[in-house]
TrEMBL record:
Keyword Cell cycle listed: no
GO molecular function per UniProt: DNA binding; identical protein binding; structural constituent of chromatin
A family per Pfam: Bac_DNA_binding
Gene3D superfamilies found in the cross-reference section: IHF-like DNA-binding proteins (4.10.520.10)
Native source species: Acidihalobacter ferrooxydans
Gene Ontology CC, one term: cytosol
Keyword DNA-binding: yes
Keywords, comma-separated and alphabetical: DNA condensation, DNA-binding
PANTHER family given in the database record: DNA-BINDING PROTEIN HU, DNA-BINDING PROTEIN HU-BETA
One annotated GO biological process: DNA replication initiation
Name of the molecule in the record: DNA-binding protein HU
Signal peptide feature range: none
SMART domains named among the record's database cross-references: BHL
InterPro entries noted in UniProt: Hist_DNA-bd, Histone-like_DNA-bd_CS, IHF-like_DNA-bd_dom_sf
Length: 90
């Protein structure tokens, strides 16, 4: 499912226009992004939680030359599914 299919599904289930559903999806994505930027966790009970995971600096290897390289520390967005979502999928 891509973004436009998600918008169509939300519009149909919530009985709202596609334009409004698009604004809802955009607002949701923007809100989650802002929270993660501020190092906050977003928890949606029954669905899952979004959080920022910290990746430490490490030494890697260039596969082409075999040379060692330093990989800088970084932050990554993460998602952990909730029990209800896991149960629905299985």
């Amino acid at each position: 499912m891509n973004k436009s299919e998600l918008i169509d599904a939300i519009a149909a289930k919530a009985d709202i226009s596609k334009s409004t559903a698009g604004k809802v999806v955009d607002a949701f994505v923007e809100s989650v992004t802002e929270s993660l930027k501020n190092d906050d966790q977003v928890v949606i009970v029954g669905f899952g939680s979004f959080s920022v995971r910290k990746r430490e600096a490490r030494t890697g290897r260039n596969p082409r030359t075999g040379e060692s390289i330093e990989i800088a520390a970084s932050n990554l967005p993460g998602f952990k599914p909730g029990k209800a979502l896991k149960d629905a999928v299985n």
